[in-house]
Amino acid sequence: MKQKTHPLDRLLRSAAAAPPRQDEAAAVPWTLEQRVLAALRGQRQPEDIPWLAPLLRQAFAAAGALAIVVGFLAFHSPDNSVTGFAPATHELAVMDQELTLALVPTDLKP
Fold first, then answer.
1. Contact 85, 78 (CB under 8 A)
2. What pLDDT is attached to residue 80?
3. How does DSSP classify residue 51?
4. Rounded distance between C-alpha atoms, residue 11 and residue 17, angstroms
5. What is the pTM of this model?
């Protein structure tokens, strides 16, 4: 009795036995390739939004400068005697205690 083979096996065997084809990329002349590429380059449309790149560049520069200024102000502690702007440490503790008393319930009953 003859053994049945899978159709894929037959297809692969026949593909392996076929003569090799000529490389199609090598069959196209170089001058034709150059003409096709030149035609494609000639059909390019100008960019629709040429103003976007400079605008983004300026926005990123402004955001970076703002980040540097905010970082400096966040880590710079001004001297109280010179500016008089920053509250003293005990004033911050008093404000924290007042907020804690106002926000935390004192009569917790189970």
1. yes
2. 47
3. T
4. 10
5. 0.33
